[in-house]
Amino acid sequence: MQFKKVANFARVIKLGYKHLNQMKELKRTKIKALLESNNFGDIINVRGWVRTKRSSKNVAFITLNDGSTIHNIQIVIDLSEHGEESIQFIHSGAALSVNGELIESPGSGQNVELNAKEFTILGKADPEEYPLQPKKHSLEFLREKAHLRFRTNTFGAIARVRHSMIFAIHKFFNDKGFYNIHTPIITGSDAEGAGEMFRVTVLDPKSPPLNEDKSVNYKEDFFGKETNLTVSGQLEAELAALALSEVYTFGPTFRAENSNTTRHLAEFWMIEPEMAFYDINDDMDLAEEMLKFLIRYALEHCADDLAFLSKRQQDEDKNKKQEDRAPMELIEKLNFVLKNDFARITYTEAIEILKNSKPNKKNKFQFPVDKWGVDMQSEHERYLVEKHFEKPVIVTGYPKDIKAFYMKVNEDDKTVRAMDVLFPQIGEIIGGSQREENYDVLLKRMREMNVPEKEMWWYLETRKFGTVPHSGFGLGFERLIQFITGMGNIRDVIPFPRTPQNAEF
Ligand code: 4AD
Ligand code: MG
Question: What is the CATH number that goes with domain 149-196+231-492?
Fold first, then answer.
């Protein structure tokens, strides 16, 4: 937007005419670039939202943020020159366009500031109504203001880290020669068994067409069959991998589980690589390499935001009980994961460790571990990672009865080539497996687990035509962001969380 156009509809306060002609031509400079500049004396245009305003008799200081960085630029307005009324409509949350001279800052806390020559209020914010006054707000409060919470330091930092991680994921796979595949969001198969699904229909809920037995006749629905939102892109990614060798999906997934936890969303994003000719060990190697690449990328590209998030976590921890505090400072934790090989153990070994663990013997687990075959709960996963191994753990060889039909059955016919990557504070961050490539075994597993084989004809056919060993996994994007940012609740690492009873915004 050109300054001239802005002047047409917004209130313009002119502060000094010296550079006016020059200013009208000014292009906006982002605050990030400005803070890195030392071209003192330059006349610059910045635009952004007011964080704070303070004024004394002769001078006003306004901090402005435009989202390009966690840091603000300080705008200095000489009131003796421009009059006190010039700042009467500037409040937290208002949007400003400022032309000014870049000067070396005499104050501490910043290197440069902008000596305002001329500015425009692009959008006012009534201080009686604007909810984000410059003070600390609870995360719960901010969840109810999700339309504005991007404007806080915390949510600005998270949004930037999230973006960097999206970019890094595509870079990681692109550099390795993987192809990104778009798998369908609306799916006709209910085969994953990964969770309850959300139905997609255009039928009138009040009077749907009925079959003779009074069941809903989905033949009359939009797609002529029952459809749902996908819980995973894996099955379709497998089809692509069996031609393109190495592919990945990165899409939204939907699960209608009623689990109100700090690690579950009804709508979340998942990265699912799928690789032909990979066995379970190759799969684990790729998962570990990828997680380390992403953490290193965050450390290198998000240093300012991570420093802020680290300090934030330490401040929060001051009000927490010792056992609820983060065991390690955020950046130290990220470096720690980089430096150490992940532990790799079997499910059977994990159960032995858990059975003999102190919390199990002292009945401290909510779900006691008494026998081989039980599913591991998050408390068990975290015990293994945080207390026993004190580093990330990959567990393989889970009982086939608690895992999906497509996982390759081991020679013992009891366990499958599954692998879960467990992280501190998060628990399961990745779930994956080698896939069953043998047609007969796969069909048998489908029948055992009541997977509709007729509907899945296309999946089965790939095992008839040129089947090969292949593997893949799913990384929960929001869980990754939780780990990188240190945020305790998954609702705070996605802009607009979808959880039971909550789809506002
Ligand atoms: O373990 P899951 O269910 O695995 C699959 O869906 C496989 N199809 C993946 C594959 O092999 N291609 O989910 C994978 C990951 C979990 O480890 C977790 O990080 C995340 O997705 N996840 C969730 N994240 C947020 N909210 C939920 N409700 C989640 N459910 C799973
Ligand atoms: Mg899983």
Answer: 3.30.930.10
